[in-house]
Design brief:
The complex is a heterodimer of chains A (293) and B (244). The N and C termini of chain A lie far apart (95 Å). By secondary structure, chain A is mainly alpha-helical. Chain A has a domain at 2-53. Chain A contains nine helices and three strands. Chain B has 14 helices and no strands. In chain B, helix 5 packs across helix 14. The radius of gyration of chain B is 24 Å and the shape is globular. The chains are: A mainly alpha (293), B mainly alpha (244). Chains A and B meet through helix 2 and helix 4 of A and helix 6 and helix 7 of B.
Chain lengths: 293, 244
């Protein structure tokens, strides 16, 4: 049975009751602390102010815009414009300057390298490594060996249009043919030429390939791109085989696999993603890592 | 208690508290009203319906990748929502538009940003990078805390239900045509061959890859990831016209 009775003061706790009683058990009246209650009321009042100042209520075809017409998309446009202004003068100067001019101007160089380092960390480091040290399949950018060229123009071209990036028609194209898969070379021929590549590359020749035969096969199939001396050709993106830098590895299995399946690494084109000043800064940064030509 | 107090409307809550059916009806009315006010305006307000060029439904292979993305719970660590904040736009690119995820069911905006946002990851890395990275993230990013997903590359994509997937999505409003649904299986295989067959006819700019017509789960996931955030050409997008 429950019933309401007149509120009274509970004898044990000294707290008043609400007057609700169930089977002789009375409910104590312990209201919310005043400070809490008034804070709650204040937030309600605050929300009314918020409705007035910021976009809030849906209407028939639009919504209330708020006193100042603030909107997140307009705000980001303003913020980006502000950023453009801050970088504007230095950026415009950088875009036009040659590498020699940039190197001669301490302020311009530090701007380019700071921006380049930041852009590199965000966009390039996942493949080339945080220190541009590279990884298997992703070239080291600190050394002075370049697959597609280490001049500022070549670096800029590579960043802007990528390598073997189909979506960009100006991308650096041309890949090593799949000599084995396409049936140009037989398995024993591939083994011989792989041995020859190891021999000119200065690593221990695995197994017992016929190096004389390998040399002939090399001259007929490989020299057109990698050169008679194995020094490669940056025009074609064919790496040097004699610089002791092995992008995929110098063991026989890896070399055989490359000859069998051909192909080459892929780098996205960044022209659509990064603005020209950022690409210039990246070029300066990469060029300055140690191996720039 | 004075009878004058009992007659006040503020004293009538006892009716709800003492009759469960009345309480249930009351809850339904309250929630329905809240939904009406908060959700319904989104269907007609100009500022929430933004039409943009270039967004098309996923091709069957991309959709299979989307399903794997959901299955593996990628959304638990990766958002797909570049917010209109300066640092995010600087890092990832243009802020996300609602229309870019209009064919995602369920949408993958997420809010747990343990890993980087993926809304614009399409075209940022090569396919090979994604392969290396899924197999072992530490192989390419030494500081990564992402788990490895090595089984994806070893598991052939087995999706006998891709046609039903398309049909189901068509029911909820994704504009898959009858032709698209009928050819779903063929399109899925075609996109995994070098020339892609005529998959591009139905799905503009679908990227075909030479996978011998037998994609793995990883191939499907990569097809999906490489599509993310690439559909809208922001050189043509007028940000100012859409400030409203």
């Amino acid at each position: 049975m429950s019933h309401a009775s007149e509120p009274r003061v509970d004898a044990h706790t000294g707290t008043p009751t609400t007057g609700h009683e169930w089977d002789g058990i009375a409910e104590l009246n312990t209201p919310l602390p005043r400070w809490w209650l008034w804070t709650f009321y204040a937030t309600i009042v605050w929300s009314i102010g918020y409705w007035v100042v910021y976009p809030a209520w849906p209407l028939a075809t639009t919504h209330t815009n708020g006193l100042f017409g603030w909107n997140s998309r307009a705000a980001i446009v303003d913020e980006l414009n502000e950023l453009k202004t801050i970088r504007g003068a230095a950026g415009a100067k950088l875009e036009k300057a040659s590498l020699a001019e940039i190197k001669g101007d301490a302020q311009m160089l530090s701007f380019a390298r700071a921006q380049g380092a930041a852009a590199f960390a965000t966009n390039c480091a996942p493949c080339h490594g945080a220190g541009a040290q590279g990884a298997k399949g992703y070239p080291n950018l600190n050394d002075d060996e370049w697959i597609w060229g280490g001049t500022p123009e070549a670096i800029s071209q590579t960043i802007t249009h990528g390598i073997r990036w189909d979506a960009d028609k100006d991308s650096r194209a041309g890949a090593m043919p799949a000599f084995g898969k396409d049936g140009t070379l037989k398995a024993d021929e591939i083994a011989n030429v792989a041995g020859y590549v190891q021999s000119i590359g200065g690593v221990k020749v695995e197994g017992s390939p016929d190096l004389a035969k390998g040399k002939t096969i090399y001259a007929e199939n490989c020299a057109a791109c990698h050169g008679d001396d194995g020094k490669g050709n940056m025009e074609l993106g064919s790496p040097s085989l004699v610089d002791k830098i092995w992008l995929y590895g110098s063991d026989k299995a890896t070399i055989v696999n490359r000859i069998q399946n051909g192909g080459g690494g892929v780098m996205p084109s960044w022209g659509g993603r990064l603005d020209p000043v950022t690409i210039k800064s990246l070029t300066v940064y990469v060029h300055s890592l140690g191996g720039g030509k | 208690m004075a009878s004058a107090q009992n007659s006040s409307i503020w004293q009538k809550h006892g009716i709800f508290e003492k009759n469960s059916i009345v309480l249930v009806i009351g809850i339904i009315v309250a929630i329905a009203w809240g939904g009406l006010v908060e959700i319904v305006p989104l269907f007609y307000l100009k500022s929430t319906i933004e039409k943009v060029q270039g967004v098309r439904p996923y091709s069957p292979l991309e959709l299979a990748g989307f399903n794997i993305y959901v299955r593996e719970g990628c959304y638990n660590c990766h958002s797909q929502m570049v917010r209109p904040l300066r640092d995010e736009v600087e890092r990832y690119g243009h802020y996300s538009l609602a229309a870019e995820s209009m064919y995602d069911h369920p949408f993958q905006w997420g809010s747990k940003r343990t890993g980087p946002d993926l809304a614009r990851v399409g075209g940022k890395y090569s396919d090979d990078w994604h392969r290396d990275h899924m197999n072992n993230p530490r192989a390419v990013v030494p500081t990564s805390i992402m788990p490895a997903y090595p089984w994806l590359a070893k598991t052939p994509l087995d999706l006998p239900n891709i046609k039903e997937d398309l049909r189901t999505l068509a029911i909820v409003g994704v504009p898959y045509t009858k032709e698209m649904i009928d050819k779903a299986d063929a399109d899925l295989k075609a996109q995994a061959t070098a020339d892609g067959g005529d998959v591009q006819k139905r799905y503009a700019n679908a990227i075909a890859r030479d996978l011998g017509g037998k994609p793995t789960e990883l191939d499907a996931l990569i097809a999906y990831l490489q599509r993310l955030g690439t559909q809208v050409d922001f050189k043509l997008y007028d940000a100012k016209a859409n400030i409203r």
